[in-house]
Amino acid sequence: MAKQGNLSINSENIFPIIKKWLYSDHDIFIRELVSNGCDAVTKLKKLSVMGEFDEPEGTKYRVDVSVNPEEKTITFVDNGIGMTEEEVDEYINQIAFSGAEAFLNQYKDKASEEQIIGHFGLGFYSAYMVADKVTIDSLSFKDGAVPVHWECDGGTEFEMEEGDRTERGTKITLYLNEDSYEFCNEYRVREVLEKYCSFMPVEIYFTNETAEEEEAKEDIPEIVDETPSEGEETELNDVELDEEEEEEEKGPKPVNEIHPLWTKHPNDCTDEEYKEFYRNVFHDYKEPLFWIHLNMDYPFNLKGILYFPKINTKYDTIEGTIKLYNNQVFIADNIKEVIPEYLLLLKGCIDCPDLPLNVSRSALQNDGFVKKISNYITKKVAEKLSGMCKTDRENYEKYWDDISPFIKFGCIRDEKFSDRMKDYLIFKNMEGKFITLPEYLEAGKETYENKVFYITDEIAQSQYMNMFREESMDAVYLTDQIDSTFITYLEQRNQDVQFMRIDADLTGNFKEELSEDEEKEFTEKLAEIFKKATGEENLILKVEKLKNAETPAMITVSEQTRRMSEMMEMYGMSQSMTGMGTQGETLVLNLNNDLVQYVLNHEESEERTMICQQIYDLARLSNHPLKPEEMTDFVARSNKILGILMK
Ligand code: ADP
Ligand code: MG
Fold first, then answer.
1. Tell me, what's the pLDDT at 247?
2. Could you identify the atom of ligand 1 that is nearest to the CA of residue 76?
3. What is the pLDDT of residue 123?
4. Of the ligands numbered here, which is closest to the C-alpha atom of 76?
5. Which amino acid residue places its CA nearest to atom 7 of ligand 1?
6. pTM to 2 decimals?
7. What's the CA gap between 61 and 45, in Å, rounded?
8. Which of 34, 464, 586, 615 is the most exposed place for a label (fewest CB within 10 A)?
9. Domain-wise residue ranges, the chain
10. Which residue ranges in the chain fall short of pLDDT 50?
11. Span 261-396: which CATH code?
């Protein structure tokens, strides 16, 4: 006789809530039901080890997922522990239900802002997000167990009676609701299985029932009215036959890998295995630079592999993926609450069975245990990097361009990481050698005290680099996008050190003594001439006696003003809005240069105006590109000058 009952007194509204809730993540019901099947198998295996279950010879544990697009069903079958009627009553009608109810009560009002990680805890009843009716057919492993059939159409009542299942284990069938027919589509379900179940610990097989029927039909021999007359065709048929036989021998393959690489001991993994795992999981065919295998049992359980990806160009947005697992069950990608933000630039898998996942994201953020996990990962990453710098400096330098954005971001974001990495920050200098900040400062302590000169653009700043070379001065390359922020960070950490772009100033090394009177006189004179010739009313001009007499003029760009305007640009404010048309540019004229002397000592003429304009444009060109119309003028004027030369 069928047993009927009420799920719970408060259940009137739980199904509608389950159905509507988390509409973007309906696919997790597949994870929940497959992982229940895996759990059922794991439990039975344990009983077998304990001697409480006599495992028949040749037992192959598995979970089978199948869809039937015609019937609009999706089913989950396992050959695990199974349930008796009493157990269904206890675990499904009471425990699972109250679990789902408690879960929903806690989160139904907060769904939008306080999503729980991976929506853990909904369990069996998550099936009702996509199904109108769910049935359970189970046969317990216990001797003499009677099969049980349970069904519930999403109302408050369920029915339970003796079933007809003859094999040990549980079959769950979902009759999909109209909005969820996608979940009887073969490709959609494969995709979801790949997302959540790729590394679950029991073999999972997937079939499309209607496709199987079709295949069965195809197997019926067709009446062939023409026998092949040519030898070639016969041969072809033979080959096809062979292939079919082979496939049958191998049998269908599980959709998952039950021993993902991170579960193995690092000593048992080869480089090739690490690379292959990386390719398979991240579909990235560039080889990773190196990796870290995390393997911790105490005081908490955490395993995983973190890869440093190869960044193709510096224009690539570096964006990694850290996949979080709980006992080989995929939870979600890139959970900032558990994994420090800068680590999200890496690619990897982290499996942490101890994580409290049925809590909200904001609760996770303040969880001491989560902090410990995050600290542990940070420590391991810093240890790997610093260890490499100490013992394998050659590779550390080779990889620096790829790993430095990550290290810099980590230092800026995480004080602990920054403390651990501070002695392992290296900088490429003008000779192409990697040096540390203290090494740079030591080498330059007599000439430029506590200044660090840096290059952001080798081409635009080549003239300045040449001047540096002539004076045996050094500068370091800081060309990454993150470097402007990193420089600010370095200055904060090293209060007495000041960073200056190589074109920010022409220090004493490059020039000869100039008296105040001389300076005043020539500045005034030349300012008048150049403002008039160039039409730049706001031109800022300075005179110097540069050692290098061949250069008539150079542009310097004030470090502070430039940083300001870069910041403005970052926040989307245009130059005109900020009223800084020249971006802190100064035209430095060289009194030691013949052209400048010519300009000073000749009356205004067409030639003199052209010389001034040309000096100005050339100085700017050796600092940055000209605007289109300025470039047009420059080219026209250059041609005109060539014409004069010809006369
Ligand atoms: P959880 O898995 O977190 O315990 P669920 O709601 O997913 O919560 O499942 C509730 C209970 O129902 C499980 O603990 C288990 O006892 C039982 N159960 C669910 N699915 C199966 C299954 N396929 N085989 C055996 N027992 C199951
Ligand atoms: Mg479960």
1. 46
2. 23
3. 87
4. 1
5. 123
6. 0.81
7. 9
8. 586
9. 3-213, 261-396, 511-555+581-646
10. 226-248, 577-581
11. 3.30.230.80
